[in-house]
TrEMBL record:
The gene is bchN. It comes from Sagittula marina. Its cofactor is [4Fe-4S] cluster. Binds 1 [4Fe-4S] cluster per heterodimer. The cluster is bound at the heterodimer interface by residues from both subunits. GO terms for biological process: light-independent bacteriochlorophyll biosynthetic process; photosynthesis, dark reaction. Protochlorophyllide reductase is composed of three subunits; BchL, BchN and BchB. Forms a heterotetramer of two BchB and two BchN subunits. It catalyses: chlorophyllide a + oxidized 2[4Fe-4S]-[ferredoxin] + 2 ADP + 2 phosphate = protochlorophyllide a + reduced 2[4Fe-4S]-[ferredoxin] + 2 ATP + 2 H2O. The keyword Cytoplasm does not apply. Keywords: 4Fe-4S, ATP-binding, Bacteriochlorophyll biosynthesis, Chlorophyll biosynthesis, Iron, Iron-sulfur, Metal-binding, Nucleotide-binding, Oxidoreductase, Photosynthesis. [4Fe-4S] cluster binds at residues 28, 53, 114. This is Light-independent protochlorophyllide reductase subunit N. NCBIfam families: DPOR_bchN, PRK02842.1.
Length: 427
């Protein structure tokens, strides 16, 4: 029989958190557009910003010149930033021109690359005005992807939170999965849930604007990403209720996540076991193969994606690693509290960052593996510390049973590479 996971007596929910505020090293929230524009298939993301923002998106997405991506940049020139031009009128002309050329657009996101005080534009009001102008064919929404206001994955959070108030009302009993996942992973999750007998399931973000997505007091939602604090709050304001659960990373986390949903919908234990036994066995076997190189190794997390706490739980409990420090940009206990309960006492839990002080702690600890952003990885590698890019954990399919072995492999490969390099040097 499968039993719900019990919190560890020495879990980390109530341990003191090291909170530091200083220079931090993270990507800005604009990066989320790279996966969101693929996920929401009839949306367009118009970034209102500088040429620097345009270069960032082009470089991060690797868009070829003959491609037709569903994002672009309305570039602000010096006269716009100085308030000498009528930027509102220029923005409206750009939107009109865009929508006349791209008849497939059903949702248009105006994404601020800087606070409104800097770009001299109230994008929220512009979105309201444009949405009224182009309704009902196109819905225009606004959120900030500014690196001043958002970190790496907060761009997705801001995007989804902006969508929630515009969703229609419904009284039907339904499950809402919240968080952008690769289509193949989303389909796997939906298959598992439907096999459990849960039939009325919606997804935010939906792939198309006409998906029929609606919200109400009979909606319960399960998060698939731990960085959706703003979306969590927006959904609760609409009357939806959160199903707390560990995140579906690895066999144990996926089973606990599914159990939380199954309890909410009254799924009996026999059916739960019948649906999950085979994929659980595959996941355990796949994780064990990759974990052979991870067992007994230490890991240090710099704050980047907000995946850090659930990943630390997975790596310590399923892969035999020891966490030295688990840093996260923000710690939202209503979201990651159950993962903290399952994370064994021992690591320093840190929120925010003073990068120089954290680098000092990392160097003193000499971990076997360090998870960090691109800007820190090369210097640490040059000092002899193997690293894993945090950004790769967001772009790679890692959720649920079928990806459990791939997730463990993301952490074992840097250690395998370092061991191979040492062997080559010795020869």
């Amino acid at each position: 029989m499968t039993l719900p996971l019990a919190p560890l007596a020495g879990g980390c929910r109530d341990v003191p958190v090291l909170k530091q505020r200083g220079q931090h090293e993270v990507f800005c929230g604009l990066t989320g557009i790279i996966w969101l524009h693929r996920k929401i298939q009839d949306a367009f993301f118009l970034v209102v910003g500088s040429r620097t923002c345009a270069h960032l998106l082009q470089s991060a997405a690797g868009v070829m010149i003959f491609a037709q991506p569903r994002f672009g940049t309305a570039i602000l020139e010096e006269t716009d930033l100085a308030g000498l031009a009528d930027a509102q009128a220029e923005l409206e002309r750009e939107v009109d021109r865009l929508l006349s050329r791209r008849g497939d657009i059903r949702q248009l996101f105006l994404v601020g690359s800087c606070p409104s005080e800097v770009i001299k534009l109230d994008l929220a009001r512009a979105a309201e005005r444009l949405s009224a102008k182009h309704a009902p064919k196109v819905r225009v929404l606004n959120y900030s992807g500014s690196g001043i206001e958002t970190t790496f994955t907060e761009g997705e959070d801001a995007c989804l939170a902006a969508m929630v108030p515009a969703l229609p009302q419904t009284d039907r009993r339904q499950l809402l999965l919240v968080g952008a996942l690769p289509d193949v992973v989303e389909d796997q999750a939906l298959d598992l849930l439907m096999n459990l007998g849960i039939e009325d399931i919606a997804v935010l973000p939906a792939r198309h604007a006409d998906s029929g997505l609606a919200l109400g007091s009979n909606t319960v939602f399960a998060l698939t990403q731990p960085f959706l604090g703003g979306t969590h709050a927006a959904l609760e304001r609409r009357g939806a209720r959160h199903i707390p659960a560990p995140f579906p990373f690895g066999e144990e986390g996926t089973t606990a996540w599914l159990q939380a949903v199954a309890r909410e919908f009254g799924v009996d234990q026999a059916r739960f076991d019948a649906v999950t036994t085979a994929p659980r066995a595959r996941a355990k076997k796949a994780v064990a193969q990759a974990a052979a190189r991870l067992t007994g190794k230490s890991i240090f997390f710099f704050p980047d994606s907000q995946l850090e706490i659930p990943l630390a739980r997975f790596l310590t409990r399923e892969c035999g690693m020891t966490a030295i420090e688990v840093g996260a940009p923000y710690i939202h206990r209503a979201i990651v509290g159950l993962d903290l309960d399952l994370l064994g006492h021992g690591p320093t839990i840190s929120e925010g960052q003073d990068v120089d002080l954290q680098l000092d702690r990392c160097r003193a600890a000499q971990p076997d593996l360090t998870v960090c952003g691109l800007g820190l990885a090369n210097p640490l590698e040059a000092e002899g510390l193997p690293t894993k890019w945090a950004i790769e954990l967001v772009f790679t399919p890692v959720h649920f049973y079928e990806q459990a072995g791939d997730l463990a492999g993301l952490f074992s490969r840097p250690l395998h590479r370092r061991a191979a390099l040492r062997l080559e040097a010795a020869e």
